[in-house]
Design a protein that fits this description.
With 261 residues, the chain is mainly α. It has one domain: Orthogonal Bundle (ABC transporter involved in vitamin B12 uptake, BtuC), CATH 1.10.3470. It has 11 helices and no strands. Helix 1 packs across helix 9, helix 3 runs antiparallel to helix 8 and helix 10 packs across helix 11. The model has no long low-confidence stretch (mean pLDDT 85). Keywords: Cell membrane, Ion transport, Membrane, Transmembrane, Transmembrane helix, Transport, Zinc, Zinc transport. Involved in the high-affinity zinc uptake transport system. InterPro entries: ABC_BtuC-like, ABC_TroCD. It is a multi-pass membrane protein.
Amino acid sequence: MPDFLLNALLAGLGVALVAGPLGAFVVWRRMAYFGDTLSHSALFGVALGLLLDINLNIAVMVCCVVLALFLVALQQKRFIATDTLLGILAHSALSLGLVAVSFMDNIRIDLMAYLFGDLLAVGTEDLFWIYGGGALVMTLLLWLWRPLLAITVHKELAEVEGIPVRKVRLALMVLIALVIAVAMKIVGVLLITAMLIIPAATAQRLARTPEQMAIGASLCGMLAVLGGLALSWYQDTPAGPSVVVCSTLLFLLTLALPQRR
């Protein structure tokens, strides 16, 4: 196997592994649009990283986390509907990033790679970021698993039991921001949320327990990565979108099966 294909495979499997359990909470808590908003801010993080001449992974992570904190602060004000707020911030962040990139005449940048991913261009440094960030996210997610389940099932009951609902919800948003930052290289800014939602939605139809759904989402994501890379290798299709297409096909296949509850 060529080195670039092996790196792409390892990167895709690493992202799918951590995106599965986190995607389950995105589906349960109906946070898909929140994920889109954070992913669109990733391009603005790229522009800031290039302007300030700092590591792009760090710039994207910081930008996503800051926007997550900003969203939480605005949601608590309740001066505007959440879906409207998310729509404003998502498109504003993406447009601001595109405008900022257009001013960089002295820097050559492949905008399509950031928008739709460049999985086959993943290097060793990217793998360190993916697996290092993934290990951090998985550790925190395991630590917060029970509180997250509690506030997802019944927020008021969780408050009565003494769970700090706001802090746990904020931690979930920060974890989503971190996953989006490390996954940008895989499927791009416009398709990151698909890696969170589609495998989790696929596993939801087959699982009986939250734990089964989380593990199944990771497995479905890994199968999609394998299928997408195979499609890209043999048919010369873009790798990131091919992974999403394979993930969608898996979801469509599960529609023919009876849903387990």
